[in-house]
């Protein structure tokens, strides 16, 4: 569909699903990842992928020299290296824009940016990793207080919920003993977590996927229900609008994941934005007319963006998260899923299973919400107890 070669920084599960989408469109992909056998490299094994870090300037330059378009499957990349690529390889397009990745990869800068553009947010403030600074943040934002690492955060690793002042030392230790920059957010007792995937073309056209409900467990995404079932029809429209407006404030093409909180009074605030395909958009592979992965590729290659409409009445995505070093509990859920109508099993090909590691997911589609829950029940019952 395109003669352009796409380079992807990062070779995890998102890169793997991008590579699968690329293979359907016969788009050539080169992956940069330290893992020789990284999940994304397994899909297009004949491509000449690069072994190296997406934080290594030289390796990023090597990738740039082999491709026409660069994109990311993770935001924790070396943005200075991308800026250097702009100068050394002016013909290589980078999506989204390096400046967008720079802003988003620092969650405090991201919040400041969204605030400047009048996007709805909970209160937040900068803190130093010291007892005095954290104490004064509790005086302004109250307890409990959500302390967050500004950078390198994922799956809640980098968050600490401070319940009382006596927890401050534990919080500082857990968040890098003063070595990592932090900020604080007011704790929001949300009624639901929502997410909207937004796709933006190189010409600035913006389309959104339906609003979904995400359910987190221990700070990690556990379930995603699409579409969101809620009596207030205007709410979905509002959430999509907030997500689209937020994405419009950033430069560059591609898919963005917008995580939001729905508060008890109906207010919607943005939690964070990912400048790439997102866990809460896995469901789009089976449940939408065009997957987020296909649309990410289409958008960065200036191809027509595909319909983002749901093609099934109900769907749910269940993350398969390691509970120990053994893959067996996950395999049991997958075996069960093979017996369930409408279930699609995705295993990421990660060599080592570890507690808390995302090893795969299952998407279920169904003709009704009631049927969806009937199909989901046996899978949840098979999930190992520490992850159910
Ligand atoms: P990921 O990038 O994998 O989504 P992360 O490490 O960036 O995760 P966050 O999205 O900041 O982490 O937070 C993880 C979860 O913690 C949220 O999905 C939500 O359940 C909870 N959480 C985060 N911030 C707040 C807050 N201010 N108030 C209440 N709960 C919060
Ligand atoms: Mg995050
Ligand atoms: Mg998050």
SSE diagram, text form:
Layout: E1 6-9, H1 13-24, E2 29-33, H2 39-43, E3 50-51, H3 57-64, E4 69-72, H4 79-88, E5 93-94, H5 98-105, H6 107-116, E6 124-127, H7 131-141, E7 145-149, E8 159-162, H8 168-174, E9 182-186, E10 192-200, E11 206-208, E12 212-217, E13 220-226, H9 233-248, E14 254-262, E15 268-274, H10 284-287, H11 292-300, E16 314-321, H12 328-338, E17 343-347, E18 358-366, H13 369-382
Parallel strand pairs: 1-2, 1-4, 2-3, 4-5
Antiparallel strand pairs: 6-9, 7-8, 7-9, 10-11, 10-12, 10-14, 12-13, 13-16, 14-15, 16-18, 17-18
Helix pairs in contact: 1-11, 3-4, 4-5, 12-13
The structure holds adenosine-5'-triphosphate and magnesium ion (2 copies).
Quick overview of this protein structure:
By secondary structure, this protein is α+β, with helices and mostly antiparallel strands. The chain is 32% helix and 25% strand.
Description:
This protein is an alpha+beta fold. Helix 1 (13-24) crosses helix 11 (292-300) and helix 3 crosses helix 4 (79-88). The chain has helices at 13-24, 39-43, 57-64, 79-88, 98-105, 107-116, 131-141, 168-174, 233-248, 284-287, 292-300, 328-338, 369-382, and strands spanning 6-9, 29-33, 50-51, 69-72, 93-94, 124-127, 145-149, 159-162, 182-186, 192-200, 206-208, 212-217, 220-226, 254-262, 268-274, 314-321, 343-347, 358-366. Strands 10, 11, 12, 13, 14, 15, 16, 17 and 18 form a nine-stranded antiparallel beta sheet that branches. A five-stranded parallel beta sheet has the order 3-2-1-4-5, sandwiched between helices. Strands 6-9-7-8 form a four-stranded antiparallel beta sheet, with helices on both faces. Strand 10 (192-200) and strand 11 form a beta hairpin. The termini are far apart. Adenosine-5'-triphosphate binds at residues 122, 146, 148, 153-156, 158-159, 185, 187-188, 193, 216, 219, 259, 271-272. It catalyses: 5-amino-1-(5-phospho-D-ribosyl)imidazole-4-carboxylate + H(+) = 5-amino-1-(5-phospho-beta-D-ribosyl)imidazole + CO2.
């Amino acid at each position: 569909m395109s003669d352009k070669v796409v380079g992807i920084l990062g070779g995890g599960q998102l890169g793997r699903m991008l590579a699968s989408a690329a293979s359907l469109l016969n788009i050539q992909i080169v992956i940069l990842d330290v893992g020789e056998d990284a999940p994304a490299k397994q899909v297009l094994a004949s491509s000449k992928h690069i072994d190296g870090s997406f934080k290594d300037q030289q390796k990023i330059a090597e990738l740039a020299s082999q491709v026409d378009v660069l994109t990311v499957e993770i935001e924790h990349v070396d943005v200075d290296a991308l800026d250097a690529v702009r100068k050394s390889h002016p013909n290589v397009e980078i999506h989204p824009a390096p400046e967008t990745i720079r802003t988003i990869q620092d969650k405090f800068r991201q919040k400041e940016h969204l605030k400047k553009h009048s996007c709805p947010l909970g209160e937040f403030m900068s803190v130093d990793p010291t007892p005095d600074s954290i104490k004064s943040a509790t005086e302004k934002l109250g307890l409990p207080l959500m302390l967050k690492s500004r950078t390198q955060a994922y799956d809640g690793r980098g968050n600490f919920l401070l319940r009382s002042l006596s927890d401050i030392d534990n919080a500082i230790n857990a968040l890098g003993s003063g070595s990592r920059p932090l900020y604080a957010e007011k704790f929001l007792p949300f009624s639901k977590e929502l997410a909207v995937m937004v796709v933006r073309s190189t010409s600035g056209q913006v389309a959104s996927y339906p609003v979904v409900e995400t359910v987190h467990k221990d700070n990690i995404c556990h379930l995603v229900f699409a579409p969101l079932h809620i009596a207030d029809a205007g709410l979905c429209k509002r959430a999509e609008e907030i997500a689209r407006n937020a994405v419009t404030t950033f430069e560059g093409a591609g898919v963005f994941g917008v995580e939001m909180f729905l508060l008890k009074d109906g207010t919607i605030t943005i939690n964070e934005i990912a400048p790439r395909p997102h866990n809460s958009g896995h469901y789009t592979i089976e449940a939408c007319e065009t997957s987020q992965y296909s649309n990410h590729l289409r958008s960065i290659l200036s191809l027509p963006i595909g319909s983002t409409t749901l093609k099934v009445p109900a769907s749910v995505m269940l993350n398969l998260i390691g509970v120990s070093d053994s893959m067996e509990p996950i395999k049991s859920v997958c075996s069960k899923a093979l017996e369930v109508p409408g279930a699609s099993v995705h295993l990421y090909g990660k060599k080592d299973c570890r507690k808390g590691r995302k090893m795969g997911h299952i998407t279920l589609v169904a003709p009704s919400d009631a049927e969806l829950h009937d199909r989901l029940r046996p899978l949840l019952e098979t999930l190992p107890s520490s992850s159910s």
